[in-house]
Design a protein that fits this description.
- The structure is a single chain.
- This protein has five domains: 59 residues, no CATH class; 118 residues, no CATH class; 127 residues, no CATH class; 53 residues; 220 residues, P-loop containing nucleotide triphosphate hydrolases (Rossmann fold, 3-Layer(aba) Sandwich), CATH 3.40.50.
- 58% of the residues lie in helices and 13% in strands.
- The chain has 20 helices and 14 strands.
- It has an eight-stranded mixed sheet with strand order 7-14-13-8-12-9-11-10, with helices on both faces. A four-stranded antiparallel sheet has the order 2-3-1-6. A two-stranded antiparallel ribbon has the order 4-5.
């Protein structure tokens, strides 16, 4: 498919679309505004005149701030703070049906007739009650048929409100009722207090929580004492065991004096004996040899005596005296004392454990009594709270009764009813201005709706949406301002778009041919080597088709041919395909002669030359248009050799199907659509025909375009 040409128009802005829709359906626009204004005028005339009366009420905390006491109060204390709930309560009471019924002089709501109820409803609709923002004021407005009636009716509403307010206070017997309830609650409080006192006496409880706290502290203290006594007892037992082991290891007596004495007698005796033995050995050695038995024995005796002498010299005699061991006596005394202490410690631990068991038993007893004790205390607290509430209610009732008698309320009139001399409604100027604005908006919406929902096509963007192809150019009607100059530019755009589309198609054909022959294609051609294909040596044949008759195909073809011949010096021929088809149907010959329009510069059919009749045999199953297309093909081939452009002025699709049969003859189609002529389904049918044809669509042209918006206004937007 050839590349889409850039349109010769910019996308319209929203304000341009709206204004063009308004001016295109100008009659509908003004009729809608006129109708709305007429309805507003009639409604204003028929609306009854109403006048308004205003009044203001102030909400004060007079009664809510009065001291709650049974004694008389000499003064009232006021407060400047009023809650939103208080104001909302007064607003609801002012708007209540009871106030409306009382204002019209009716009794309670259940005993009035339907007429009175409707009258009360009407009064309620005429009454407007609003709280003034961030103030304690209530503004009342009431509409009436006259200023005097409005003021009088609003005054009766305020009086009815105060009367209803007085009746909605506490009744006269409220104080007596609360006083009776107070005495009953007092008796109940006394009974509950007696039950609680009996329970405390029975269980020895003054304050259960404090008692449980004391018992918990006592248990903790006894546990600490028991642990301390057990620790001391364990220390005593350990100390006694240690003393017992030390006593076993310690002797009962100890050495006091120890003296060392030498063995002088033994040393002297052994020295004498040694001398005797040495003398005896000397004699024996003189008599006997050294290995003689007597000599050997004597030597041994000498050695023995020497050893005995050395032993006596090295181990002197010891003299020692003993006495009673004081450590033994001390350990014995300490062991006896520890036995007594252990006995006392064991007794202390047993006593502390006994006290601990008693404290735990007492705490368990208190825990068991907690639920019953709490229930009794809760009953006493509830009875006391009820007693206080009823006492307060009794005092409030007494104070309210006194204030009701004095007709003192929280609401006061700060502005009495004042009526306005000017009527509130109808307001002709305001209604007419609002009607004009509403009529303008409604007329604009209707114009846009009719324009967008219409089956006609008026804008290039609409044509783009239907065909999916950008519109090549837009040609205005000749009676439009500056139409000739703008259309001349449009014809040049059409020629440029046709040339570009045909050149692109020729490039595709060349590329496909080279691809089949193994030559370079756009895909495998290096950058800079993909040059445009050379123009073919024959001319181009373009068919111009429209969905319906009268959409300007002939006009476009003639002006386009003249522009091509004049501006680009092309050899252009215009062929009226409808004329040739009628000639072929009548005389059976598709031959024709040409003549040149010297003023326009292009060639066209010469209708002055008669074409001879010939037999026109149409094969069975073949249409006249198909046979005519076959006969026309060689003629178009000849025209391609003689002219640069062959422009076929085809009949509309509503007249003939010839355009679809010429897809083998032409190089492309150009769809011509008249703005406001063809319906969307006709344009879609033409687009479907183009899709089925083998020749490509070169573009669409929107003709007979009208610009309903004035030029000066169009420039502004």
């Amino acid at each position: 498919m050839p590349p889409q040409p850039s349109p010769n128009y910019s996308q319209p802005k929203i304000r341009q679309i709206v204004l063009e829709a308004i001016f295109r359906h100008e009659r509908l626009f003004w009729l809608t505004i006129a109708g709305i204004m007429l309805l507003v005028a009639v409604g204003t005339y028929l609306t009854p005149k109403k006048y308004q009366a205003d009044a203001k009420l102030m909400v004060q905390n007079v009664r809510s701030s009065s001291p709650l006491t049974t004694t008389a109060s000499d003064r009232l204390v006021t407060s400047g703070t009023v809650s939103a709930e208080q104001i909302s309560t007064q607003v609801e009471l002012l708007q209540s049906p009871a106030v409306a019924l009382r204002a019209i002089g009716a009794g309670p709501a259940g005993s009035v007739s339907r007429e009175k109820n409707r009258e009360a409803e009407k009064l309620g609709k005429a009454l407007s009650v609003e709280a003034v923002h961030q103030t304690n004021l209530i503004e009342l407005k009431l509409l009436g048929d006259s200023p005097e009636q409005a003021a009088d009716q609003l005054r009766r509403v305020i009086d009815a409100y105060f009367t209803e307010r007085a009746g909605s206070g506490l009744s006269a017997g409220a104080a007596s009722f609360f006083d009776e309830q107070l005495r009953f609650k007092q008796r109940q409080l006394q009974v509950d207090q007696e039950l609680l006192s009996d329970f405390q006496v029975k269980h020895g409880i003054s304050d259960l929580d404090e008692e449980k706290k004391l018992q918990t502290e006592r248990i903790s203290s006894l546990i600490n004492q028991s642990l301390l006594a057990q620790t001391q007892l364990a220390a005593q037992r350990s100390r006694a065991e240690t003393n017992r082991r030390q006593l076993v290891l310690t002797p009962a007596r100890s050495s006091t004096i120890q003296r060392s004495i030498t063995n002088q007698y033994s040393q002297e005796h052994l020295g004498t004996e040694l001398v005797d033995l040495q003398n005896h050995l000397t004699e024996l050695q003189k008599r006997y040899p050294e290995n003689d038995r007597q000599v050997i024995e004597t030597k041994e005796k000498i050695e023995t005596v020497k050893k005995a002498e050395a032993g006596a010299r090295s181990a002197p005699a010891t003299e020692e005296s003993t006495d009673v061991n004081p450590i033994y006596q001390q350990l014995s005394a300490s062991l006896a004392a520890s036995a007594g202490e252990m006995s006392a410690g064991a007794a202390e631990v047993a006593k502390i454990n006994e006290q601990l068991e008693d404290a735990r038993h007492r705490l368990e007893e208190l825990n068991v009594a907690t639920s019953q004790y709490d229930a009794l205390k809760r009953d006493v607290a509830e009875a006391q709270r009820d007693f206080d509430v009823y006492a307060q209610k009794r005092d409030e009732a007494r104070v309210s009764e006194e204030l009701d008698k004095a007709r003192m309320f929280d609401v006061s009139v700060v502005q009495p009813p004042i009526s306005q001399s000017n009527q509130i409604r109808p307001r002709p100027k305001l209604y007419m201005a609002a009607g004009l604005v509403f009529g303008f908006l409604l007329a604009t919406l209707l114009a846009i709706y009719v324009d967008t929902s219409s089956e006609m096509v008026y804008l290039p963007s609409q044509l783009d949406g239907l065909t999916g192809v950008r519109t090549v150019a837009t040609v205005a009607e000749d009676d439009q301002a500056n139409a000739s100059s703008a259309n001349a530019i449009a014809y040049r755009r059409i020629l440029l778009a046709i040339r570009n589309a045909l050149r692109h198609r020729e490039q595709e054909i060349v590329a496909q041919t080279k691809g089949l022959l193994g030559g370079p294609t756009p895909e495998n051609t290096a950058p800079g080597q993909n040059e445009p294909a050379e123009p073919m040596s024959y001319g181009r044949c373009i068919a111009f088709v429209s969905p319906l008759q009268g959409e300007g195909v002939t006009y476009i073809v003639n002006h386009l041919a003249g522009e091509a011949a004049r501006q680009a010096s092309f050899r252009v021929v215009v062929i009226d395909a409808a004329l040739l088809l009628r000639q072929f149907a009548e005389k059976g010959d598709a031959g024709f002669a040409l003549k040149k329009d010297k003023r326009a510069g292009y060639w066209e059919l010469d209708t002055t030359i008669e074409v001879p009749d010939s037999k026109n045999h149409i094969p069975r199953g073949t249409s006249l248009q198909e046979v005519f297309s076959l006969r026309l093909r060689p003629m178009m081939a000849q025209l391609r050799l003689d002219f640069d452009y062959v422009l076929l002025d085809c009949p509309s699709l509503a007249e003939s199907t010839l355009s679809g049969e010429l897809d083998r003859v032409v190089d492309g189609y150009v769809g011509v659509v008249g703005a406001g002529y063809s319906r969307k389904q006709n344009i879609q049918g033409m687009a479907a025909m183009f899709e089925e044809a083998s020749a490509p669509v070169l573009g669409y042209v929107l003709t007979r375009r009208r610009y309903p918006v004035p030029t000066w206004l169009h420039r502004l937007i």
